Task: inverse folding
């Protein structure tokens, strides 16, 4: 039996259960005030889920494009996501805050000898100024650098793409501009270092103080205040529409919200489309701080971070929680998922990390399997809507729906 067939049987049973309850006049959502929003029809079949995925990818990645936090494009994306959550959830809002944004001014360039290299300067970091910098290639250990030819003073670092081509990364400190270059340029950089070829680099950039950006937060209240929190970042790096990182996974989260709508679960379920993950998980940290100040952080019993689930069929499960790891493995077996999840036994340092302060059990879900085809697109302009395999989103949706059902029925303390 395939993954889809296995879950279709579970969904048939769940539909029958809800139908019987409704016929008896005992629908849980009717016991607690006004009727809940119900958008399950948007995602009730595999075909409808594929249609929903394509529509949302087109709107976010193709029509809006890159959505660096604190930009108008990012806030347009947040408003679109908010409208989708309103269809599914009774409590939806924007969690807006100010941070230091970043803007690239004009074209960026990296030229070695007479060759112009593809390059992306690290976002949130310093630029070179409008005039650019000139020097030669040197090495500090394994780090390529541009240094002043006479004084040997470092002027900029050059980072080699982890998966092949040049990528737009987030600044990691060090005080110097950081330019990305592809692995295919290593031979040229070594030649330039040996022959003292001239190098020119330019990326005029500036920080934007007190720039506003927004998390989108939607909640389906449960019978209990105990809470399951899903979080998936909605921002991208400045040079990429971010279909795999992380738009498709965030859309999967929206599909979960639609799929769970219309009835009241045992536990409250909250969905956060976070901002400013690229560069330090600022959105997740802000929302955790908001919950801490409100005295409700401790209600979050489980936090599930969805990040790049379309790099392949095999979940990469980052957690130190043996129970969550076992649950994910059991679901794969029970649904006969043709995939092999891998445990990375450490705590998430990204978007679910801030919620451990309140005692939440956390897990970060990424993926691998189609590495040669998908990983080289990471943080690049070609991480587009057309590269997403809908089958990976469908599989993730089915697994996560079942995970939510089981967590809703479990003792989570």
Result:
């Amino acid at each position: 039996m395939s993954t889809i067939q296995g879950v279709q049987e579970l969904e048939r049973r769940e539909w029958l259960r809800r139908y019987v309850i409704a016929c008896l006049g005992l629908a849980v959502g009717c016991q607690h005030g006004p009727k809940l929003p119900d958008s399950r029809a948007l995602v009730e079949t595999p075909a409808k889920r594929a249609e929903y995925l394509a529509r949302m990818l087109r709107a976010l990645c193709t029509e809006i494009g890159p959505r660096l936090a604190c930009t108008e494009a990012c806030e347009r994306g947040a408003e679109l996501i908010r409208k989708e959550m309103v269809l599914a959830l009774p409590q939806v809002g924007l969690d807006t805050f100010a941070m230091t944004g970043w803007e690239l001014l004009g074209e960026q360039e990296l030229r070695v000898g007479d060759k112009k290299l593809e390059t992306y300067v690290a976002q949130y970091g310093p630029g070179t100024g409008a005039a650019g910098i000139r020097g030669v290639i040197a090495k500090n250990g394994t780090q390529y650098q541009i240094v002043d030819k006479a004084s040997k003073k470092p002027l900029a670092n050059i980072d080699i793409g982890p998966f092949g081509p040049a990528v737009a990364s987030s600044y990691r400190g060090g005080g110097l501009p950081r330019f990305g270059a592809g692995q295919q340029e290593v031979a040229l950089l070594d030649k330039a270092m040996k022959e003292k070829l001239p190098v020119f680099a330019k990326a005029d950039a500036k920080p934007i103080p007190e720039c506003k950006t927004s998390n989108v937060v939607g909640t389906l209240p449960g019978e209990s205040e105990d809470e399951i929190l899903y979080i998936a970042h909605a921002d991208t790096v400045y040079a990429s529409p971010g279909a795999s990182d992380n738009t498709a996974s965030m859309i999967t989260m929206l599909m979960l919200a639609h799929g769970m709508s219309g009835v009241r679960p045992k536990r409250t379920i909250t969905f956060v489309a976070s901002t400013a993950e690229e560069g330090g998980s600022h959105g997740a940290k802000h929302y955790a701080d908001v919950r801490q100040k409100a005295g409700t952080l401790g209600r979050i019993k489980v936090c599930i971070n969805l990040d790049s689930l379309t790099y392949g069929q095999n979940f990469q499960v980052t957690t130190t929680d043996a129970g969550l790891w076992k649950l994910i493995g059991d679901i794969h077996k029970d649904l006969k998922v043709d995939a092999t999840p891998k445990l990375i036994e450490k705590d998430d340092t990204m978007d679910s990390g801030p919620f451990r302060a309140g005692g939440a059990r956390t897990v970060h879900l990424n993926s691998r399997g189609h590495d040669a085809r998908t990983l080289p697109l990471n943080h690049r302009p070609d991480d587009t809507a057309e590269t997403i395999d809908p089958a990976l989103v469908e599989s993730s949706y089915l697994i996560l729906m079942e995970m939510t059902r089981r967590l809703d029925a479990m003792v989570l303390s």
Q: What stands out?
A: The two ends are 34 Å apart (CA to CA). The chain is about 35% helix and 30% strand. The chain has two domains: 3-99+211-409, 102-208. Residues 3-23 form the longest helix (21 residues).
